[in-house]
Specification:
alpha/beta, Rossmann fold, 3 domains, 16 strands
Amino acid sequence: MRFTNYSRYTGNRADALNLQALLDHLSDFLLQSGFAGGQYSHPFWGEFGDGDDRSVDALRDALLRALIESGQLTPEMLAELRGDGPGDESVRREIGELLDRLIERLVEEGYLDLEPPGGNSSRPGEGRVDEARSAARQVEFSLTGKGIDFLGYRTLRGLLGAMGKSSFGSHDTPYLATGVEAESASRPYRFGDTLNLDIPATLKSALAREGLREDGSIGLDYGDLHVHQSEYRSSCATVLLLDTSHSMILYGEDRFTPAKKVALALTHLIRTQFPGDTLRVVTFGDRAEEIPLSRLAHAQVGPFHTNTAEGLKLARRLLMAQNKDMRQVVMITDGKPSAVTLRDGRVYKNSMGLDQAVLRETFQEVAACRRAGILINTFMLARDPYLVAFVNRVTEIARGKAYFTTTLTLGQYIMKDFLRRKTRRAG
């Protein structure tokens, strides 16, 4: 039978597939934002948003697409799936078993958790998670800490690979540096210096002074010693301020998922290379709230306005509670401020133009950050003239920087900005 050629995709053969390569293809699906609360009716734009499908049934469909995109399903098998030959049901059954086994592996290796109705996590070995199609629609999946960390690492690796020294191309690289690159030249050792020897420069000095001895040895003198010049690296507290207003996903472009990827990459970078630093995440829509990094992967935008002032106020409070040399806000937004929290706790909203009362409160919070020594760098995902003027005013008050980016360049801009300010040349 024709489908016997596909036996390598079934049973234990599924264990040979590269899960991490599949997770790369699944990253957008696993981090998809969507609208909190499902569909939302807007008086001008009508119905939009279709919720966030976290069912195993949706995961199986996404895995199938990942297998196709990664070339692990052959054209012959795809022809069978389209019904172009005999053995269609057998092939579908084999592929279904393959997808079930891949989901089991994702759970067994700690990348995903499964939550059946009632919220009790299923465990490997307690029966198949997809014995029936209806069960697959009810069981939901969620990323584990390991899964979130893996996606953060892969995003960071891709961003750093695209930021390489060459100005041509943006190829990914499997190598991740163990620290920020130091470009300063070495200098002769002085008493009191840390003995961080520059071996090539030291040997070069000794050879230039007297050459190689007859016995093949090199004579070192005190004056030959050269050391690497160190960089002063200050500890830094960062708040990533994420806009969750409806415009972040409203106009046919998901701008929030790339922002979440940057947050995960920053988290991995700080944890592995700058352990003295901290990163907190604050979302701001109608109201601002801090969310734990464990919730970031499943964060969604909502039918919200943009309460930038409250977001900055909460970020400032979080930063002032930390004893760090540097404090900064990285704000990612695509819209104008359109809401502000009143003294009595109510939220005043006005999405029609730039409301002067909203602007005044926002600029006051920007000024408060500046007085507290907090740097604000704004990454704007839109270029409307009145938004450019607003961001330029924020930058002028805060003495920070503004970056007008796209979802494709957002991560590179943020990483370059972060790494550039992480090193200062020692005087």
